[in-house]
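Slack export, channel: ligand-projects

TW: morning all. Re-posting the request from yesterday since it got buried. We need the structure predicted with the small molecule present, not the apo form. The ligand is pyridoxal-5'-phosphate; the SMILES is in the block with the sequence. No rush, but it would help planning for next week.
GE: picking it up
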Amino acid sequence: MNSPIYLDHHATTPIAPEVLAAMMPFLTEQFGNAGSPHQYGWVADAAIKSARATIAQAINASPEEIIFTSGATEANNLAIKGVAEAYFSQGKHLVTIATEHSAVLGPCRYLESLGFEVTIVPVKPDGLVDLNVLEQALRSDTILVSVMVANNEIGVLQPIARIGKLCHDRQILFHSDAAQALGYVPLDVQAMQIDLMSLTAHKVYGPKGIGALYVRRRNPRVQLASQLQGGDQERSLRSGTLSPFQIVGFAKAVELAIAELPQESKRLAELRDQLLAGLSQNLGQDRFVINGSLNRRLSKNLNISIPNIDAAALTLALGQSIAISSGSACTSQSLKPSHVLQAIGLSPELALASIRFGLGRGTTAADIERTIEVVVEAVRVLG
Ligand SMILES: *Cc1c(COP(=O)(O)O)cnc(C)c1O
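GE: finished. pasting the full token output, ligand included:
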């Protein structure tokens, strides 16, 4: 049996062959602990130093501003809880938006249970935050604003640089979850005035289980309370033995993605447009709605709702031929309508009739043709 065509690149991506090759020595002979005072340790330490510099450079940061974590979930937790704990004497108010990933909303809810106040700013029907509404949510006791670069369900790109300016004009720290954006859109923590940024490797053809938090060290110098106590790795902000094979793989993945970003995002946009055109032609333009702004969006993403189609049944029916998701991978098993789709105004029924296409490096024009065919056929059968 042929493997299904993989169109779930928002959930995760395969490890690129170059990334695996870069990792292999550190899974075999080079097994040292980067903290050890001998040859094995020095080799690990040098590899991590070089990887840290690569990742920092990709976002226009300095190497000392990169704190390795297990991924974006941990980076979001460290950023939000770490800032709250370090700055609570200056204020106990945080601001975020309704379409954030649960790895941002979860820590915010946790802080509420500790007595912090969180304002969740709504988004417009196109998925973008209204800057005036966001500005009105900012208060003299606001210590942190957290707004993602790119949404993991509908792919929309928030006006990050303008949000960064709003925050910095008021001396409020700005955190951004860039898990879906790294390697897909240019990121620059200076130009975007970002103080903390969460990154992960596995959405960009790197290994699972590794990510980073960027923490600004000047203008302003961000204070952060560690969420792990123990060793003094990562300036004591994230204790635990560093994993050279994961870190080296992460850096290689970032290096490759940045090098091919302009051409690849153009190629993906063309494929996405081919998919949209094919669905429009064959299903009829009125048979589905596009969720989120079409032009302020990641080129790899298309999210549509097909009224009166149960998306869970549709993804199951397609499962032999194409691997797609009816929402975020973390919530699609729960059969609850997506909070992101409801935040852009979809009814629970329409939210449950949504499918997310996530295109990637391996996706070809032939894959898209086949996808159009099988989706159209499945909708005919189910609809
Ligand atoms: C995937 C994802 C996460 C979680 O990242 P992990 O590295 O898997 O913990 C967080 N935020 C967004 C927007 C994501 O897409």
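GE: first-pass observations. DSSP finds eleven helices and twelve strands in the chain. Residues 71-73, 101, 103, 148, 152, 177, 179-180, 200, 203, 211 surround pyridoxal-5'-phosphate (CB under 6 Å).
TW: perfect, thank you
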